[in-house]
Amino acid sequence: MSNLFLCSYLWDCFYLAKNSRMPKELLLQVTPETAANEALLRQHLAGLLRTSPQEIAHITLLKRSIDARQKAIKINLKVNIFFQGEPVIEQSIQLPDYPNVANAQEVIVIGAGPAGLFAALQLIELGLKPIVIERGKDVRGRRRDLKAINVDHIVDEDSNYCFGEGGAGTYSDGKLYTRSKKRGDVTRILELLVAFGASNEILIEAHPHIGTNKLPQIIQDIREKIIACGGQVLFETRVTDFVLKNNEVQGVVTQNGDTIQANKIILATGHSARDIFELLDRKKIHIEAKPFALGVRAEHPQSLIDKIQYSCDYRGALLPPSPYSIVKQIGGRGMYSFCMCPGGVIAPCATSPGEVVTNGWSPSKRDQPTANSGIVVELRLEDFKPFAKFGALAGMEFQKSIEQKAWRLAGETQKVPAQRMVDFTQQKVSADIPKTSYVPGTTSVELGQVFPGFLTQTLREGFVEFGQSMRGYLTNEAILHAPESRTSSPVRIPRDGETLEHLQIKGLYPCGEGAGYAGGIVSAAIDGEKCAMKIAESLRK
What is the pLDDT at residue 3? Predict the structure, then answer.
């Protein structure tokens, strides 16, 4: 588009908007300085629209993203411009008018992660009473158990970074970016989070996240709303059995031997509930091994990632800590970055004693001095052949074997096997490991001992190729922590795809990441809502 044509187009837009008394929606690209300063942005818009800054009464920011492909970094903006004399209409986000469901038909929701919580909210909206059963503690109670992992190397099987109110996302960042836009209404999920206290920024940013420091209060507020509307939330209650009759669910049995009855159950236990997978297998409910990805968590100085991504020696205050995303095909296998955390830390995410697992998270400001990302390799079903005797649980046992090996190599503690990145590619044990953000500590290990040969070789070749694509990425300043193994569920609980019309067990709705039908907070929440709507639909029929 020529500059002359662009100017003519913008002038026509301004003329029509001004004379029709309607706000003008505009896409534009500006410098970081202009994006950060409302006066400069107003002046820039006035120049584009051939008017004075005084004619612009108000600017509403709708979307924002960074374009760092060129040395001169630009900010992409989508704005609404209101002119003098026009009413300024700002979006007001309110919670739905939830009814009281204390005496309504009951639906059991197993798991209080995003799938379970959003399923419960949707059930209330549809006039049904959720009974949310969570094996772990509430968000406040979880903190003591997280400290025990970090400081004392003690893993509580029911309360840890994966299990407890809010699920794995509560204390691991709360990233909200999703590619699952075809599965449901992403905006609805984000707006509900805002209504429960999240910053309006999550509606604007291209890659939104809430931050581990802010998520607990939001999760607590969701729980309090569920209870206020007549729903129930049961903590420290582990489901140990399903009550089935004539291929139809009748309720669940808890670890205390109590039976909770309901003929509609949403199973939203997440990707790490191995005991649930084993229970399903024992009950002869069909499950199947699912490919997933596994690798390491790489930590760099954030300043180094900023230098690579922004092509500058100093990022400054106008740009956020830079993320990165990289994908390669190495010997026919995909190797890619996963759950990248700018300005974040690495956390111990084991769910049982005798294993080591890593994950990453960032606070809302992303102001930590290090950046970390899972760097993982796609696995195939044939990779699980050494564990074929476990049938549908073969992938889970493959995953478990690597986590247990890491625990042994790290001295049977929550310390993590670690190696400098260049040393790993050269098969050299690192002489020393500098202090990293992983609080329990590190043990210098040649990481080829942690993984099977094909996986080690793929990682070694892949890091060399990563370094060729991102100059400076392949460095001994980067520390690899092993393993990053909980990228997604190693098991799928088959259901009739997106329609949920035909279930294996009548009334039992496999849901979210643990069922193999979601891959993050937003997609899990969407799937939870979908299951709730299908239950309401089946009851109407």
Answer: 47
Phi, psi of 195 (to 5 degrees): -65, -30
Using a 10 angstrom Cβ sphere, with 0-12 exposed, 13-18 middle and 19 or more buried, the burial of residue 468 is exposed
Percent of the chain with pLDDT over 70: 93
Q: pLDDT tens, 420-465?
A: 999 999 999 999 999 999 999 999 999 999 999 999 999 999 999 9
Q: What share of the chain is helix, strand, coil (3-state, %, to 5)?
A: 35, 25, 40
* CA–CA dist 506, 493 (Å, integer): 14
Query: Under a CB-based contact definition with an 8 Å cutoff, are residues 476 and 423 in contact?
Result: yes
Mean pLDDT check: name the lowest of 8-22, 70-84, 270-284, 488-502: 8-22
| Interacting residues of 523 by C-beta distance below 8 A, sequence separation 6+ | 178, 180, 183
With contact defined as beta carbons under 8 Å apart, do 228 and 99 qualify? no
Provide the 10 A C-beta neighbour count for residue 247. 12
- pLDDT > 90? residue 336: yes
Non-local (6+) Cβ contacts of 85 within 8 A are: 21, 57
DSSP 237-250: --EEEEEEETTEEE
Look at residues 265, 321, 318 and name the one whose alpha carbon lies nearest to residue 508: 265
| Cβ atoms within 10 Å, residue 495 | 21
Q: Which helix (H) or strand (E) holds 219?
A: helix 215-228
* Residue 22 pLDDT: 61
Residue 190 parent element (H or E): helix 186-195
The candidate with the shortest Cα–Cα distance to 481, out of 406, 423, 422, is: 406
Alpha carbon distances (Å) from 361 to 171, 219, 244, 364, 504? 7, 17, 40, 10, 36
**Mean pLDDT over all residues of the chain?**
92
For 154-189, letters b (16+ CB in 10 Å) and e give ebbebbbbbbbbbbbbbbbbbbbebebeebbebeeb
88 pLDDT exceeds 90? Answer: no
Query: 414 to each of 26, 189, 358, 442, how far by Cα in Å?
Result: 51, 35, 10, 9
pLDDT at residue 368 is higher than 80: yes
- In the predicted structure, residue 2 carries a pLDDT above the cut 50: no
As given in the structure block, the two tokens for residue 72 are: 């001169």
Question: For residue 416, what are the β-bridge partners?
Answer: 442
